[in-house]
Every structure is written in structure tokens, then in C-alpha cells.
Amino acid sequence: MTVVRSELVKALTVRSGPALALVAVGAAVVLAAVFVASLPITQHVSVAGALPAEVVSAALVGIDVTAVVLTVLGALVGGAEHATGTVVPTYLLTPRRTRVVVAKAVVVGAIAVVVAAVAAVLCAAVGQGALLLAGSDPVPIDGTLLRSLAGNATGPVLYAVAGLAGAVLTRSTGGGVAGALGLLLVPAVVGWFPGLSLLAPLLPAAAVHGLSGVADPAGAEYLAAAPAALLLVGWLTGMVGTAAWRAEVRDA
Fold it and tell me: What is the C-alpha to C-alpha distance for residues 12 and 164, in angstroms, rounded to an integer?
């Protein structure tokens, strides 16, 4: 717990860290409003004419920008000490480097959970507000909506940890951002090549979509909730484990 507390203090004092957390939420809300307002263009239907669930789903796309911003935050937490050279005393104080990397991952994950949860709720609120303004009934607050919120919030958490792991692996904030954004774009690349569709259910996006309940059962990436949760845990464990192993076997 001492290592976690130490890493939490560092994370909270990372330059631009608090600002990035605010941007992650604010930008998500703005993007949610843009997506809802653009429904007549993208879906050829007004808010009043659309199904309530479709309006809220469109608003929740705003959380994608939260994933991008938190990726940067995670990479900053993982790469800042390498950039300043302060990683050397950190490893001297805690010789078991695995503990340091895991503590960083716990801190980044916890911050990302809070930020992503707030962003998801506010994005959904944008959709619900648009429905009310259009004179439509809002989406009931039930298990389906809560699953959608929770599932969508897992994406930013996963990519924030990916940014951290990438930064530790490359000893570079830029490397962490590039690696995590590359992981974010892999599903699109896989979609371009039919022969790679078998990889779709193994990618992080499949876990996020499976947990949120938006995956098409007939689609290549479809996963039920339980396998999606296992896949998410597998990716998180694999990324943090690889970063921790790399930190242990090389010089600071």
C-alpha cells in the first residue's frame, strides 16, 4: 500500500494530469452533444423520430474521446519518471520493480475508472436531455442502460493502462501513446482484411463491446458478457505483466 500511495501522489502531481482528467470528461460531453445533434445527417432521423436507445447510444460514443485523453494520461504516468531520470531513485527505494509497475497500473486504473464513469453518466445525460427536449420519453434507468454505461466505461480504463504499459516498455511517454492508440485502431485495420476477421473476438474492442451489450450477435467480434470480462482481464494482466517483466530485466 505504501508503494501505491507513493505512485498516487506522483500521478496527481504529473504536469497536466488534472487538466487531462477534466478534458477527458468535458470533451466527451461536447462530443456526445455533437453526435446527438448530427443524427439527422448520420442516421437521417431526428431525435424525436429516433428510438430513445439509439439517441443515448449515439451520445455514449462521446466516451471514445475519453479513452484517447486517458491514454495520454496513462502514458504520462508511465513515462514521466523516465523523462526526468527520477525513475532511478524510485527503483532504488523499491528494488522489486514489479511492485512499482503494478502500483502505477492500480493508480492509473483507479483514476480512469472514476473519470470514465463520470464521462459515461454525463454522456448518457446528454442523450436523455435531448430526448426530453424533443418531447420523447427518456430511456428507462434499468439493467440494460447500466450495463451500457459500465461497459462503455471499461474502454477508457483499458486504454489508459495500455498507455501506461507502453510507456514503461518504451521508457517514453510518446511510445506509450503511440502503442495504445495503435491498439485502439487495430479493429479498424482488421476490418479491412476479411482474412483477419478471426482475430476480432480476441481484441480489446471486442471485450468492451461485449460488456456494453452493443456487439452484434452475428458479427465477427461478438462475445457474451462473461467471455468479454475474461478477455478484458486477460488484456489488462498481459499488458501490466509484460511491462513489469521488462522493467525487471533491464537497467533503469
Answer: 15
Print the domain residue range for 162: 2-249
Q: What is the pLDDT of residues 1-36, one digit of tens each?
A: 688 888 888 888 877 888 999 999 999 999 999 999
The total domain count for the chain is 1
E strand or H helix at 96 = none
- b/e 111-136 (16+ beta carbons within 10 angstroms → b): bbeebbbbbbebbbebbbbbbeeeeb
